[in-house]
Amino acid sequence: MTAPPPSHPPPHRAAVLAGVGGCLPPTAVTNDELAQRLDSSDAWIRSRTGIRQRYFAPPGTATSDLAVGAGAEALKSSGTPDADAVLLATTTPDRPCPATAPVVAARLGLTGAAAFDVSAVCTGFVYALAAAAGLIAAGAAERVLVIGAETFSTLLDPDDRSTAVIFGDGAGAVVLRAGEAAEPGALGPFDLGSDGGREDLITVPAGGSRQRLSGVEAAPRDRYFAMDGKEVFRHAVRRMSASARAVLDRAGLRPDDVDHLVGHQANLRITNHVADEVGIPRERCFSNIAEVGNTAAASIPLALDQAHADGVLTAGGRVLLTAFGGGLTWGSTVLTWPRLDRA
Questions:
Q1: Which member of 83, 179, 191, 341 has the greatest number of CB atoms within 10 A?
Q2: Residue 115: inside a domain
Q3: Catalytic residue list contains 285
Q4: What is the first-listed, main subcellular location in coarse terms (predicted)?
Q5: Which of 122, 235, 273, 288 is catalytic?
Q6: pTM for this entry
């Protein structure tokens, strides 16, 4: 008996956005609460970051708990509880080993689905979107759940004013389904990049193999997140702007064609500078950093979920996504917002 020929994905197969969801810890932490400890003020924090509050996960909560919450909402939004793969972008996995994505998949009833973590810090969600699009384009999956989830508060030095006021915890998610490149919701093209020569700009020095095999005990401060704020600002604006322009060029679009820019929610001033560099009016930028802070890999999907819920993102609108993070890493993509149900 002759074996049937291998199946191949149809031409022009694309990843299409089919659902969105988000999850935040139950209690917000205001600037005033942090300012009392950090010799700062609400006005100082707002003027430099655009943030007025953020959410910190309570004791007993892990990154997987937030990821499950966001993933469940995205699956519900998509109209079906099924997915062939789960990709989790995070810098704060539940454990160094194993990956957190399989745990999330099992808790969502997706045991047996392919599942893996993506580590690209604040660019992680865009990298995960690209990986998911590749799985769908190759015919390896029909539906992929992509989650960005962080408990960044676990990495912060509570007495470091330069970082403790910026970051927050949360999770956002989208469901991608196989579809056609010409239909609303189709992702692409993508632009991705990295520069490992500047790994020192955004880092947690201790805890990995380099420090553990150095023979030197880690200093207490090396267990916390650290960054060079001025240099990060400069690189973030330059890399996100160039990446966004590259995606628009590949898609045959002009800045005027973009209805909404949804960038990584790093700092409101960064978002505004990127918009200016790309040539997109600032009023077309969606930002929720004032309410949730910088949630790293969760920031773009959380922003998409809120913008959708608020009615800012409507069917037919052209949306540009761009991000920058440690590594250094950066990435962008573009899509036409599809018609999605709102909870």
A1: 83
A2: yes
A3: no
A4: cytoplasm
A5: 122
A6: 0.94
